[in-house]
Amino acid sequence: MRKLGCLALIAVLAAAAALFLVIQGWGGAGPSTRTLTVVVPQGATLASTAAALERDGAIRSATRFRLMARVLGSGEPIKAGEYRVPPHLSAADILKMLQGGKTLQRLVVIPEGYPSVLVHDALAKADGLVGTVPVPAEGSVLPDSYAFQRGDTRAEVVARMQRAMRDYLAAAWAKRKPGIAVKTPAETIVLASIVETETGKPSERRMVAAVYGNRLRVGMPLQADPTVIYPITKGRPLGRRILRSELRAKNGYNTYASPGLPVGPIANPGRASIDAVLDPERSSALYFVADGTGGHVFANTLAEHNANVQKWYAIRRARGEM
Question: How far is the first Cα of the chain from the last one, in angstroms, to the nearest whole number?
Answer without folding.
Answer: 109
